[in-house]
Amino acid sequence: MGLNKQVFLALGINLIRRNQLQLTQLRIIQPWLLNKTLFQLLGYHRRQMKAKQELYSFIQNVVAIKRQDHEEKELQKAKGMDENNNKIDTKDDKNKDLKINSENGNEEEFLDIEYKNTKTKSFLELLLEIDHAADDKLTDAEILPELTTLFFAALDTTATANSTILLLLAMYPEVLQKVTDEIDSVFGGPDEDDGRPPTPADLHSMNYLECVIKETARLYPPAPIVFRQVDEEVPLGRHVLPAGASIMLTIAGIHRNKNYWVNPIQFIPERFHPDESVSSSHIRQRHPYAFIPFSAGPRNCIGQKYAMLQMKTVISTILRQYHLSPSPRFQTIADIDKRIRMDITLRMEDGAVIFQSRKQ
User: Fold this and answer.
1) Other CB atoms closer than 10 Å to residue 146's CB: what's the count?
2) How many Å apart are CA 122 and CA 151, to the nearest integer?
3) Are 211 and 272 in contact, with CB atoms under 8 Å apart?
4) Binding site, annotated residues for heme
5) Of 91, 231, 285, 355, which cross-links 325 as Cys (Cβ 3.0–4.6 Å)?
6) Which of 223, 180, 188, 154 is nearest to 315 (CA)?
7) Max alpha carbon distance in the chain (Å)?
8) Which residues of the chain have pLDDT under 70?
9) pTM here?
10) Which segments of the chain are extended strands (E)?
11) pLDDT for res 88
12) What pLDDT score does 210 carry?
């Protein structure tokens, strides 16, 4: 969101996980708490409202800070100055290379130049820019639900996924070496890496890292369950799901179904290799819904492309600077499984323990 990440993690994510997610999980595993009267009598409703107020108060402070910052920038822009009181350059020279490379069809170079000439903006900054240009302005009450959704859906899940990916890489040195070799081929290795941030073209070229991310999401989907409401009667084997019923789909169970995956409990990134001659020996039956870490259908996750880019960026940046080695506590998939806690999001009971040392 453009604010200090440590402050955000401490005040935002932990607050959500500790209060809102735990209360939601409680009502799932104890369905009698779905009764509003009982939920209130047992004191859970009061806890939920307190957590909601704390969360909204945090988000409102963030919105107020960013709105003030945005208004100051717009005022400076109107004066023809940037935020550092420097005169704003025209776009002609900045976009000259973009036009040339676009016309020449050099897509990767075009992506790189476009990336370098574009200042990264947070979701909230984009939202405030759109709001500034609109006639019908958004109120803070309208912005709050959008940011709350972002907090729940995007940040907690990718944080869980990143830690699990790093843990599995530390446990499987042969896979870690392949990922490291791929990253070195992009950035030049420890001796040549100048520490530049990855570009969209760099991230697009990390094919094996993408296989690792997908295989991690297969074994440990950050959102292991989803809920749907049945619109019409659905025959299901010897049973019938009545119209209007609410159902819970266990993504984690689908991802480990031996009818679709060969050795489903093993960590094998090659399952997702783009070359079918490589992947086919690890897949028993290809089905469009056998792998759904972002759910599927019209209500699937709208942030899946963002999530993939974010995970590639974080993992590649860490591996460019650090060596990883496993903790004695985590030697096999079974060691991870017995420490997994399935809330609304998947997480380690005591965190993912990894040893690291900085590369020279």
Assistant:
1) 13
2) 13
3) yes
4) 301
5) 355
6) 180
7) 72
8) 1-19, 81-120, 134, 151-154, 360
9) 0.76
10) 225-229, 234-236, 239-241, 246-250, 322-326, 340-342, 346-348, 354-358
11) 57
12) 96
